[in-house]
Automatic annotation (TrEMBL):
Gene Ontology annotations of biological process type: trehalose biosynthetic process
The keyword Transferase belongs to this UniProt entry's keyword annotation: yes
Protein name: alpha,alpha-trehalose-phosphate synthase (UDP-forming)
Biological source species: Thlaspi arvense (Field penny-cress)
This enzyme's EC code(s): 2.4.1.15
Family statement drawn from the similarity comment of this UniProt entry: In the C-terminal section; belongs to the trehalose phosphatase family.
A GO MF label: trehalose-phosphatase activity
Lineage: Eukaryota, Viridiplantae, Streptophyta, Embryophyta, Tracheophyta
GO CC annotation terms, alphabetical: cytosol
Gene3D superfamilies the record matches: Glycogen Phosphorylase B, HAD superfamily/HAD-like
One Pfam family hit: Trehalose_PPase
Origin: domain of life: Eukaryota
EC class: transferase
Keywords for this protein: Glycosyltransferase, Transferase
Amino acid sequence: MVRPRLLVVSMSLPVTAKRVGEESWSFTMSPGGLVSALLGLKEFETKWIGWPGVDVHDAVGKKALSIALAEKGCIPVFLEEVCDQYYNGYCNNILWPIFHYLGTPPEYRNDSAITYQSQYDAYKKANRIFFDVVKEHYQEGDVVWCHDYHVMLLPQYLKEYNSKMKVGWFLHTPFPSSEMYKTLPSRSELLRSVLTADLVGFHTYDFARHFVNACMCILGIEATSEGVVDQGKVTQVAVFPIGIEPERFIKTSELSEVSQYMKMFKNDFAGRKLILGVDRLDTIKGIPQKYQAFEKFLEENEEWRGKVMLLQIAVPTRNGIGEYQKIKDQCHGLVGRINGRFGSISSVPIIHLDCSIDFNQLCALYAITDVLLVTSLRDGMNLVSSEFVACQNAEKGVLILSEFAGAGQSLGAGALLVNPWNIKEVSTAIGEALNMSPEEKERKHQINFQYVKTHSTQQWADDFMNKLNEITTNGELRTGEIPNELRQHDVVQQFSKSKNRLLILGFYGTLTMPDTNQDRRGDGMNLELHPQLKERLKVLCSDPKTTVVVLSRSEKSRLDQNFGDYNGMWLAAENGMFLRHTSGEWVTKMPEHMNLDWIDGVKHVFKYFTERTPGSYFETSETSVVWNYQHADAEFGRAQARDMLQHLWAGPISNATVDVVRGSHSVEVHAVGVTKGTAMERILGEIVLHNKSMNTPIDYVLCIGSFLGKDEDVYTFFEPELTKKTRSSPDTGNGFPKKVSSRVVDLNGENYFSVAIGKTHTKASYFLDSSDDVVQLIHKLCSHNNA
C-alpha cells in the first residue's frame, strides 16, 4: 500500500550540512524530539523542505547537496539572495521580538537600504522561494505542514496555486495579545495568509485565543468555538501542546555511564542542594531575573548560604549580535557580584557555563537536581521542564516554573508557578522548594510524570495530523458550494403541487425595503415591512394549506408592530426565544437557567461607542444587544468595531457564556445557542401542537433570509437526508411534544428551497439579489393561490 506523502516545511532542515569537497557534503543530524516525531509518522512518507543552513552560490555545489539530502528525505531551499534581510531581518528583528512581547524595533538609521519595507519584501520573496520548491515537489494528495513564523505567507501562496491542497500551519513560539500584534506593519496580510490554511495550531489556549482575538480585532471577522470564519471559509484553530521523547530520557538516565556522572557530580557539589537552570542565552529566558531572585533568597536566608548552589547552563545563541552580548555581559556581572557577596574560598553560590554539555551529563544533572528553576519571561513551551521530570529517579526534585512559559499550562499542576518579574515571589518559591517534604515532592512529580509520559512529541504530531485529516475530509467544515440563482418558476410549480406548505421568512433584509432605501429615525432603523408585501402576506396566511413563520432576531415589539394584525401567522422573535401565533400570546422558549447578567455591561460598552461613532446606533432585546454602524463612515466604523471587540472581551463578556457575531456593519452579542437553526425544533413542535388535526405531513418548505453566518444552520435543518430521522425537541414542561416524528415532514430535493438574500458564500442552496426579488416571488405565490 502506497503511503500518502507529508511535506514538512520549516526554516531549517533537520540536518546540519558541511561542505567537504567541491561535490561532497557531510551531515550531522539535529537532535530533538521534533525531528524524530515528524520523520517518524508511520502513516506518511515524510519529506522535509527547508534551508540547509549554509549559503551555496555555485550550481555544482547546489546539485551535489540536493542529491545528498534526497537520500535523507530532505529538500533544500536556497536563500542566498535574501537570507540576511529575511532571516536576520524580518524574522528575527521584527517578528520574533513582537511575538515575544519585546515590541517593534526602531528603523535602522545608519543604513538606508535596510528598512521595514525592505525586510518585508525579503520575507515575501523568501516565502515565494519556499513556495516554488513545494510546488516543484508537490504531488496530488500530499499534505503540507508549515512550521513557524518564518513561513506565514506560504499557506496563501499554496492555496492560490491549488485550493484543494491540504495545508496546516503550526506556531512554535507564543502568539502575542492583539494589542502587541497590531503594532506589526504587515499585520493584516500575515493573518489573512495564515487563515487560508485548513488548520492552525498553537501550544497553549492563551496563544490560540490571542490569535483569534487578533483576527477579530484587526480583520473584523467572526470567531466561533472551532476557530475563525472569513467570507464563508472556516479555519480551525486548535491547541496541540508539544512534548519530548520521554523514553529517550528515561532510558538514558538508567545507563551506567550516567550513574557514574551522578556520583561524580554529587561528590563535586559536596552535599550542597542543587538548583539547576538550562536555557539558551537569550533575552526572553529571564536569566538575570533568576540570578536576582537567588541573590534575594541568599540575602534573606542566611542559614542556606554555603548549603545551596545554582548551576546555570547558558547555551550561546546568535553570537556577535549586540543585544545578546549585552545579556551575556549582564549575566556575568550579576554572577560576579553574587559570588563576591556570598562566596568563600571553598565554594561559590553560582556556577555559570556559557556552553552546552554532553547529553548524558545533562541527564545526570537532571536526575540529581533538587530544584529546576525556569524563569522565562516569554516562551513558546520550554521543554527543559519536561526533560527534568522524565529524568527524575530516586529522590525527586521540585519544578519552579514561570507562568509565562507555555509549559505552565501543561505542567503547572505539579510545579510551583511564579511570575519571574516578581523577584520576591521567586525567592520565596526557592525557599518553599528546598523545604518541601518528600511526600509532597513525590506527589507533584507523579502528576507531571504521567503527563510527560503520555504527551510525547510523537503524540503531538499524530494529534495534529489526525485533526488536519479530519478537517480536510469533512465537507461540512469546508467552504459551502456556491449556490444557484433561484428559479422562481420551480418554486411556484412545487408550491402548486404541495398540500401542506411551510414558509420560513426572515424579516430584516428579506421582508423590508432594500438597505439603500431604508429611512433612519433617531438612533435606529425604521424596520418596516415592504409596502408591497402587506396584503400579499395576508393572502398566504389565509390559505389553510400554508403556514407562514417570520423568524427574526428582532424583539417582540418590532414583530408585533409589523404583523400584529395578521391572522394565522407565526412570529418568532429573538431567534425563536419568544414565539406566538398571531391569534394568541407570546410564549417564552428560553432555557430556564440562561444567564443574562452580561447584558447591562455590554450595553454600557455599546453606548460608549455609539456616542463616539456618528451614524451608529445599538438595539437591545431580552437575549441580545446589536451595535450597527452601516450609516457611519465605513473605515471609521470598522476601526471602532475592532476596538469595541477588545473592550468586550476584556470586560463584560470575559467570563460570560455568549456568542459574538461580527456582521458586515454590525457587532452582536447574544446568549450561546440562540440561532435560527436551534429554534426550528421548538417552532415545529409548537406548530404541531397548535394544529392537532394535521394529518398531512409538511411536503414543501421555502426558507428565505438575509441571515448572519451563525444563523445559517436553519438552511441545513430541513435538508432531506436529515428529515428522515426522528427529531428530538426539548420538553419545556408546557405540554409540548418531546418528539417530532419524521412523519411531520416529508421532503426531497425538489420540494425544499433554502434561499439566501444578497450573498453567495452561504449554506443555502439558492440565492436572490435583494428583497425586491422576494416581493416578486411572493406575488407569484399569491397569484397562484388566487388562480
